[in-house]
Design brief:
single chain, 101 residues, alpha+beta, 3 strands
Length: 101
């Protein structure tokens, strides 16, 4: 990712005071950058994040929750089930979004 893109996302997706990331989306040139922006938008927006329902949760070997949120589908469920409990990565949230069009 380009450093100026990362800086733009940081400035638009700050804490829980997120505005629409219209400047950053115009700077995005790769799928990775778009995914980074969407991830920051969801995770740093308390209202959006809390509105996503939790589908299921488990605790990893280190005592951290792994939670599947969003719309139920086979792919998301498979990712959740196959994520090893031995990963020491802190709290993990998987967000499954409904695809339209």
């Amino acid at each position: 990712m380009k450093p100026d893109f990362v800086d733009s996302v940081k400035s638009e997706c700050v804490g829980y005071t997120l505005a629409l990331p219209d400047r950053s989306i115009k700077l995005a040139e790769t799928i990775n950058e778009i995914l980074h922006l969407f991830h920051s938008y969801i995770i740093n927006n308390e209202k959006n994040y809390q509105s996503i329902n939790s589908l299921t949760s488990k605790t990893n070997d280190y005592g951290y929750d792994i939670t599947l949120h969003g719309s139920p589908n086979a792919l998301a469920q498979s990712v959740f089930e196959n994520l090893p409990n031995s990963l020491d990565c802190g709290w993990t949230d998987i967000v499954s979004l409904t695809m339209r069009n």
